[in-house]
Amino acid sequence: MTLPICAIQSEFLTTLAKEHVVVSAATGSGKSTCLPLWAREQGRVLVIEPRRIACTSLAEYLAQQANTALGEQIGYAIRFEHHFTEHTQVVFATPGVALRWYFENQLSDYDVVMLDEFHERRWDMDLLLALLKTHNQHRLIVTSATLNTKPLINYLQAATLHSDGKMFPVEERFIANDTRAMPSKYDLSERVREACEQALDNTEGDILVFLPGKGEIQAAAGQLSHLNALVVRLYGGCNPEQQRLALNVQNQQRVILATNVAETSLTIPNVSCVIDSGLERRTHLRGGKTVLNLEAIAKDSAKQRLGRAGRTQAGLCIRLYGEYAPLIDTTPPEIHRESLTELVLAAGCSSGGVDSLEFIEPLPQASKSAAIEQLTKIKAIDAGQRATELGKQLYPLPVDAQLAYLVSTMPSKSLQQAMVDAISVLSVPARVYQLPSSSEQIDALNKQLPNHCDLEFVIALVRDQLEGVSVENDALKEAKQFSDQLRIAFDLPERKHAASYDRNRLVEAIAKAKPDWLFVKRNNRRGAFGNGKSEVIPAKETRINDKCQAMLVLDTYALAGKGTKQAMTLATMNVPVSLNLVTALGLGEQHFIDATVINERIMAKFSTSYAGLELNEQLIEPVGQLLIDACISLILKGELLAPAGEQIEQSLAEHQLYYQAHGTPFEALTTAQYLQDKLQQLGVEEQDDIALIEPQDLFYQALEPWELAPFIEKHPLHVKLNDLLMQVEYSFTGKRIQLTYVSGNRKDAPKKWELPAWPGFKVKYKKASKVVDVK
C-alpha cells in the first residue's frame, strides 16, 4: 500500500540535503515511518518521539518491515531500556533520553535529528529544538500534524513540505442533553457503554474510545464485558500484550479504550468509529507547582480524534458532549502550564543558561523566574544560570531535580537510602499501590506500620517488606528500577541490602530541607491543612488519620471544581509530625502578647503561630527587639520608668494640637512609635541597658515650654468641672469645639461661663449619643 507521504519523497530528499525541513502531514500519512528511513541518505538519524509507546512500537514495526533484528538497523531508547548499537542507523528515543544524550555529547553520534509530533508542544521538545538550533550541527526535520507551521518555518529558517493524506468522510453524532453541554466525568463509564452499543450496531470496523486515564479505562472495561467484542486497553505503561492487540488487526471486532497516546503518536489499523469522551488529563500550574487535572479537550484535539475514524473507510465519530460545547481552540503549550524547573536546569547543563537560548516563543517570565529562584536556592545553578556541580549531578537522574536534591541533603547513608526508595515511588506517573479497604487488612497493616505514615509505607513497599498489599506490578517494577538506578548514582548499597533507618531523623531532615512542605490542620469543616501559602486536604489514598494535627506533604494532585475557588489540592503522600517540630525548626512567626516584671526582671509573653494556627505561648526573658516590645508595653501601663508613659502620651497630644492650630505640618506619632524609635536610639538590647535610663530620658519635648505652655493653658485637652471630666476636641478651621463626657455624676450640660474662654468658637457637648449646644 502506497502511503500519502510518499508523494513528497523526491522533494523531501532534495530539500533535506540543503536545509532544515518542516513537514506537515496528517496523522497516519506515514511521516513517522517513512521520513526517518529516507533521511538515512544524510547519515545516522535520531527520531525523537514524545511518548515511550510510540518509540517502541515504531522501532519494532520498522525493524519487522526491514526483516532485521530490533536494534540492528532500527532501534530505540527509552528510560530503563534500549535496543541499539553504535551502528544502528535509525534510533527512536524519548525527549528525556535525548536531552541527557545532548548533555553528554551534544548528540554528536547523529547527523540528522527528527522531532516528531512537534505540534504537541511539550517543554522538552521546545528545549531540544532551541538547543539544536543554537548548536547548529545537525540537519533538522520537524513534523507536525497541523497546518500552522509558519512559526516553526520562521524560527528555523527552514523549507516546508506538506502531505495532504487521505481522509474519508466521517459522520459526527453528539450524545448530550444540551447542545452546549461540556465534557463531563459523571456517569462516564455508563455513557461509554451506551455509545459502544450504538457503535456496534452502526459499524463493522473497530471502535476507538478516547478516555482521560487508566482509571477511566478500567471502569469502562468493566462496563463492556458483556459485548461481543474484544476489549483492549491502551495507555502509557500498559503491558506489551495489550499494546500488541491494539496495534495489530485481530480476527474479532475490537473496542480499544485509549488515552491520548492514540490521538497522534500511534496508528491503530481498521478503526471505523471513534467515541470521544472530550476529556483528558492535562497539567497546569498551581502555586508554582505543576499539577495534573481533568480537563475538557481543545478543538484541535477534537479534530485529531475524529480523524482516526476516516483513515481507510467512511467513519463515525460519537461525541459524549454537546455539539456547541464552548471548547478552547488549542491546547496550551506545556511551557505555559508547567513549572519550568526541569527546563531551566537542563538548559543550565547543556548551554550557557536558559537566557542564552532562543525559544520558538518566549518563556513565561513568572514561571522562568520562579524556576531560577528555586534552583538557585538549592544551589543547582549559579548566578549565571549555569548548572553547578550539584546541578550536573542532579540533572541526569531520572527524577525531578527537587526530589533528587532531597537525597543529597540527607545527613547519613541510611537516610539517603530511605529517601531514594521514597522518591522512586513519587517519580512513577502511574498509581503504584492501593491501600487496603477491609477492616481486617487495615488492622494488619497498622500492626506492621503503626505510625499511619505514607512515607514508611512506600519505603517498605519498594523494599518488599509488606504483605497483603494490592499493587500495580508494572508501576512497582518501574519504582524499583528508579531505586536501583538512584542507588548507583549516589553510591548506595543495593536495594536487597537496604539499611534500616530512624524515622524521626528522616522526617526532621526532610522538614529542614523543605520547610514549605509542613502543613498544620486548620479549624475549618473541610479538615484542610495549610502552610501559610496554600491549602491541602488529605486524599482518600493516604494513611493519615483524623487525629493528625500536622504533616509533611510529599505529593499532591488537583481536583477541579467549577472555578478556581472550588478547586482542591489533595495530599496523597503524607507524614504525620508533631506540632513541636514546627516550633523546633523555628518556622512559626512569633507574636508579642504582653510583658510583666518578675523578681525585678522583665519577662515577655509571646505566642508562636504557623499558617494562622497558634502553636504555643511562652514566657521568656527577652532580648533585642522582643525586649523593646516588652519595655513599651510596661511603660504604657506605668509599670516601668514611670511617669514616662503618661508624660509622652500627654506631650505628644499637646504638640499635635499646637501644630494643628498653627497649620504646621507634623507627623502624627503614637506613644508606642515614639518609644520604639527612642529605645532603639538609646541602644536598648539587654536588660542591664534599662538600668542606665531615667524616666526623663524618654520624655517628649519638641517645643520649648515657654512656647507650648501658654497655648495649652488656653486650649486644654481635658476640662474638669468639680465632678465632671470632659475631653476637648478642636476644629480650628471650622471654629468648633466639642466637649465629650468622660466621667462624673453631673447630669446636665456645662454652662459657657464655667468653661475656658474660647472666643469665636461654637461649643457643643456630647454625652452618649446626645449632642447639645453649650450656652
Automatic annotation (TrEMBL):
Residues 195-351 form the Helicase C-terminal domain. InterPro entries: DEAD/DEAH_box_helicase_dom, Helicase-assoc_dom, Helicase_ATP-bd, Helicase_C-like, P-loop_NTPase. GO terms for molecular function: ATP binding; helicase activity; hydrolase activity; nucleic acid binding. The lineage of its organism: Bacteria, Pseudomonadati, Pseudomonadota, Gammaproteobacteria, Alteromonadales. It comes from the Bacteria. Residues 12-165 form the Helicase ATP-binding domain. Keywords: ATP-binding, Helicase, Hydrolase, Nucleotide-binding. This is ATP-dependent helicase. It holds the Pfam family Helicase_C.
